[in-house]
Amino acid sequence: MTTYAIGDLQGCHVEFVELLERLEFDPRRDRLWLAGDLVNRGPDSLACLREVMALGEAATTVLGNHDLHLLAVARGGEREKPGDTLAEVLEAPDRERLLDWLQSRPLLLRAAGTPGSGETVMTHAGLPPQWSVARAADLAGELAATLTGEHAGAFLERMYGNRPASWRDDLEGVDRLRVIVNTFTRMRFIDAEGRLDFTAREGLDSAPPGFAPWFQYPRHDDPWLLFGHWAALQGRVPGSRVRAEALDTGCVWGGRLTALNLANGERVSVPSRRDRPRSPFPTTRSSP
Ligand SMILES: Nc1ncnc2c1ncn2[C@@H]1O[C@H](COP(=O)(O)OP(=O)(O)OP(=O)(O)OP(=O)(O)OC[C@H]2O[C@@H](n3cnc4c(N)ncnc43)[C@H](O)[C@@H]2O)[C@@H](O)[C@H]1O
């Protein structure tokens, strides 16, 4: 059995199928960990959802900010935004089944490491240094319980927002859940106190003064951290002080879709198959 971690699909279904073929992925034998953001901005969100769901136990995904955006639009009264490509999901005959499935996905995946190495942990955006893996798993569980509980709709209506910008143990209610959501699904740059920045979304040189990528802060433990979300990193983690793997190589932006073999650390990627005139970015990372 081989387990592969794959970055943000964002509706890139053709590339997803091509990548699985390149991997010779066999759902009877192999496993997939997906970094979330299965949907939006790309052309085939509906096909991506159906494909991953159909893989059953062979595939598991964490929730990303675009997945939560879909849920907020469908079930939280949020409006679609310019550039969203969620309509085909929202109008699909099997929409409720797909949304129920998506809403019950976790925020964090973890697996025991090999002897002598730490755990493997996946979240959509990363893991901040102030949260141990155990703490993060508890907080992810709180959010998952809310999303699958009777107050899920009320939470989705109030999920959006950038405040509070940092975690405190005594946060309660929607403030607490919002920091958990924003940390697991939107984090990029943080400051030394763990405050989240929501203004910068491009490369490392877009860091606001006093902020650095979350992976440039040291941790007390040593998990192998798998994350997506940050396409401008192009699969790299410059200056990282933790063991981290950036998996979003910007397929939806005209880059590539990448899989990481968790047994040997090898990456395989396929190029984006669409012309995306909106994408002004170089795609420097090549397939091994
Ligand atoms: N509690 C909550 N509060 C508020 N919102 C919530 C929420 N929960 C969920 N949401 C949702 O999350 C969104 C806000 O999250 P953000 O994380 O602030 O939004 P984003 O930048 O649009 O994220 P995205 O996931 O698209 O990032 P990507 O790297 O692909 O793309 C980012 C940028 O990278 C650039 N880029 C891509 N490839 C690049 C490259 N190779 N080089 C340089 N830049 C590149 C692109 O131009 C793009 O602008 C909201 O719009 C909402 O939908």
TrEMBL record:
Highest taxon of source: Bacteria
Region of interest: Disordered: 268-288
SUPFAM superfamilies tied to this protein: Metallo-dependent phosphatases
One GO molecular-function entry: bis(5'-nucleosyl)-tetraphosphatase (symmetrical) activity
Keyword field: Hydrolase
Stored Gene3D superfamilies: 3.60.21.10
EC number: 3.6.1.41
Annotated ranges, domain Calcineurin-like phosphoesterase: 1-130
Catalytic activity as recorded in UniProt: P(1),P(4)-bis(5'-adenosyl) tetraphosphate + H2O = 2 ADP + 2 H(+)
PANTHER family xrefs: CYTOCHROME C5 (PTHR40942:SF4), PTHR40942
Family: Belongs to the Ap4A hydrolase family.
Function in brief: Hydrolyzes diadenosine 5',5'''-P1,P4-tetraphosphate to yield ADP.
Protein name from the UniProt record: Bis(5'-nucleosyl)-tetraphosphatase, symmetrical
Organism: Halomonas flagellata
